[in-house]
Design the sequence.
């Protein structure tokens, strides 16, 4: 099974997602999207395959989103901005034969892995996702 992750190694969510993929027994194709940005066509394909709008895939925090005035622009302008500033694309996007998802939170990846029974898993921040008995733990209330 081919799994591809559009990864940012500086992002904890992305690192947790990558760790879950590997714990499932798969070594994914890892694309560090800030170093090797996907084309605007590829971005549009990923977003569409994930069942999202382009606007839903935009990252606002710690990006030039506000400075660029992207709040009320057309998708073509958003794609131009992502092409120039790939940090605007939220991460991590993961593609598998089962589907494509923006894995925020990281445990969303379990829904598209061939082997989602990865055993116990705790995120870097200490949040238990799968307990020692192999049961998924309900997300923390925010």
Sequence:
């Amino acid at each position: 099974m081919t799994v591809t992750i559009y990864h940012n190694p500086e992002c904890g969510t992305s690192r947790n997602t990558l760790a879950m993929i590997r714990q499932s027994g798969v070594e994914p194709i890892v694309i560090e999207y800030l170093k090797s940005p996907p084309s605007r066509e590829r971005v549009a394909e990923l977003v569409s395959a994930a069942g999202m709008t382009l606007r839903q895939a935009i990252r606002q925090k710690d990006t030039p989103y506000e400075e660029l005035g992207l709040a009320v622009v057309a998708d073509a302008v958003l794609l131009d901005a992502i092409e120039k500033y790939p940090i605007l694309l939220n991460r991590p996007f993961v593609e598998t034969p089962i589907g494509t998802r923006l894995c925020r939170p990281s445990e969303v990846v379990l829904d598209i892995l061939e082997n989602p029974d990865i055993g116990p898993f705790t995120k870097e921040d200490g949040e238990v996702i799968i307990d020692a008995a192999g049961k998924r733990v309900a997300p923390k209330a925010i």
The chain has one domain: 4-130. Helices lie at 12-23, 40-49, 75-84.
